[in-house]
Each structure stands twice: as structure tokens, then as C-alpha cells.
Amino acid sequence: MINMRSSLILALFLSLLTTVTFSQKKESKWQNLRDTKINISKSGPYIGIQKGQLMNLEIGYEYQWKKVKLVKPRTNSLHLGISYNYFNNVLGYEFGYYNKTGRANFTYGINAVYLTDFVHNRIGFTPVIGYKLFGFHLQAGYNLLTPLTNFKNVNGPFLSLRFFILRKRDLDIKN
Is residue 46 within 8 Å of residue 59, measured between CB atoms? Predict the structure, then answer.
């Protein structure tokens, strides 16, 4: 029993000695990994539906870039899209940006919009807040447009659900 206890203490001492010996080494693989910078960029089309007072179909193209970090990764995105309401014959163009900080946080963005019914047109901007999960992006926003009494067939507050189709991914690793 005593012999087993002393051999256990000796094994513990030797394992601690090797750990202390290797911890004094200047360069380690973990230190190099910590200094590595990883950037990911993705791009591709999206399709979606926007529902407010009216229902619009959306298509467009999105470019995302992300700085991968252990704590608070940051994702940015630019998109350019077209929306169309068939029943009211309203066509819309939008250019937008959103930002997401963290892994499971909300996205915050703004869109510049141009809407036309082929007779009148309105321009404005749209602040949006959303949530992304598995390629789906649910956004809530409000169109702040120039006033025009003849052209009211547009959404004020709305919900938009988009699906991003990944076509290209680039991975950039810098030590």
C-alpha cells in the first residue's frame, strides 16, 4: 500500500516536472495560433419576401465579410436588391448595409431605397434590425420616404425574410 502511494506521488511529480520544463519554452503552437488573423468573405444571391401593408418579392446580391475572433466576432454586409409588388405594380431598388457583433446577436443596418409605380417615385432610407440563422435573415424595418400624396402603395413598417444562397467563400489566414 505504501509502495503504491509512493509510486503514485513519484508519477505525479514527474508529470509536473515535464509540464514546468515545457512551459518555459519561448514559442509554442498556441501562441502562434493566438496571433493568427482569420478573415472570411462570402457572396451570393438572396431571395426573400417582404410583408407590411403590402407584400413584395425580393431578389438581390449580398457580400459579407467577417473577422473571426474568439470573443465578439464582427460580421459586415453590403447588399443590392430589387423588390416588386405585382398587384400594385410597384418596383423598388435598395442598397444597404448591416453589422452584427457577436455570434448570436441582432443585426443592425440601414438601406437606401428608391420606389416607383412607373408614374411617380419616392426615395428614402430604412433603418432595420434583424436576426440571422442558417442562411435566413429576418428583418424588421420602417421605410422613411419622401412625402407624395399620389403614391401611397408602399410599406411603412414591414417584416422581411430573406434566404442567402452562398456562391463564393474566401478564407484569408495571416500569421
Answer: yes
